[in-house]
Amino acid sequence: MTELALRTADAFRTRLRGIDRVWLLIAAIALATALLVPAQAPAVFDVAVGSFLSTLPFIAVAVGLVAWLKATGAEAIVARAFQGREIRMIVLAAIVGGLAPFCSCQVIPFIAGLLALGAPVSAVMAFWLSSPLMDPASFMITAGALGWPFAIGKAAAAVGVGLGGGLLTAGAMRAGLFANPLKPTAPSGGCGCGSPFKGKPVWRFWEVEKRRATFRTEAASNALFLVKWMALAYLLEGLMIQFVPAETVGALAGGEGPLPIVVGALVGMPAYLNGYAAPPLVAALVAQGMSPGAAMAFLTAGAVSCIPAMAAVWSLVRLPIFAAYVALGLGGAIVAGMAFSFVV
User: Fold this and answer.
1) What is the distance between the terminal CA atoms of the chain, rounded to a whole angstrom?
2) pLDDT band for position 61 (50/70/90)?
3) What is the mean pLDDT of the chain?
4) Which end of the chain is more exposed for a tag (fewer CB within 10 A), N or C?
5) Is residue 12 scored above 60 in pLDDT?
6) Can the keyword DNA repair be found in this entry's annotation (predicted)?
7) How far apart (Å, rounded) are the C-alpha atoms in residues 258 and 233?
8) Structural contact between residues 41 and 33, judged by C-beta atoms closer than 8 angstroms
9) Which pLDDT band holds residue 263 (cuts at 50, 70, 90)?
10) Is residue 182 left, alpha or beta, with left meaning phi > 0 and alpha meaning psi from -120 to 50?
């Protein structure tokens, strides 16, 4: 009997480990809300479901766009940004970094190869700063959660932060700073998904079975990924709107002036989830009184400081360059927040 119970427990634990932890977290939060605050639970769920349904068209466009980019191999164009004169490389790296849908494990071996071949750290810094800030899917999710002005503003911030960071890094290196910036060893592999930067794009991808399969696989995996994180984000949004006092948010990050923007950037660095879950949470904060500039600073600083982005930088460069990356990301977020506040 005891042996049967142990086998049953082991089987249950094995099945539990096979379930994505984000889904478990969503179920746990929903169950806790229903049990602990039954009176407020319907309002929380109404906000979550309504916001999720309103974002579905944007999710669909994002899924299709990313799948198309992966199937055609359009990411191969990125390598061209790191050719030519340094200023040209910085500008193109900042622009391309904010457009390409890369995972951090793909970026690491690519950047390692570029650095090994002598690509300037300034151009790499521009790419590193802009890449986590925006991609096609994040653009559509931001537009669905916060509106087109925020999405366009964040895209502009991605290019601006990357460009400014790259130029400042170039100036610092000319002044003699950041000597020997690279670590003696660098990772040579990734997650097994391979480098997307080789070869030429095949725009008529549907004529090649392998690329059609890539489109289907990417569409399915990205749809599941986005739905999962959107469900969690909108559930948290409902909780924040219901339980976080509007006057508290307004006092910390509301109103005019630079202070709310600085607070938004400082709070965004540790509180950020990812580029897909963050916009709904920021939408809740805006609804509670966060200023638009502080919201933009929150989004920008958080993206630069997210764990995959910071891990990619830390794995390849020494501490001074890593510290510069964090400082440039934070400073760029504050400037982006002020600029967005002025424009809005």
Assistant:
1) 69
2) confident
3) 79
4) N
5) no
6) no
7) 28
8) yes
9) confident
10) beta
| Three-class secondary structure assignment of the chain | CHHHHHHHHHHHHHHHHCCCHHHHHHHHHHHHHHHHCCCCHHHHHHHHHHHHHHHHHHHHHHHHHHHHHHHHCHHHHHHHHHCCCHHHHHHHHHHHHCCCCCCHHHHHHHHHHHHHCCCCHHHHHHHHHHCCCCCHHHHHHHHHHHCHHHHHHHHHHHHHHHHHHHHHHHHHHHCCCCCCCECCCCCCCCCCCCCCCCCCCCCCHHHCHHHHHHHHHHHHHHHHHHHHHHHHHHHHHHHHHHHCCHHHHHHHHCCCCHHHHHHHHHHHHHHCCCCCCHHHHHHHHHHCCCCHHHHHHHHHHHHHCCHHHHHHHHCCECHHHHHHHHHHHHHHHHHHHHHHHHHC
Token reading at 243: 């339980």
Tens of pLDDT, residue by residue over 280-322, are: 888 888 888 888 898 999 889 888 877 666 766 777 788 888 8
The answer to whether 279 and 273 have CB atoms below 8 angstroms apart is no
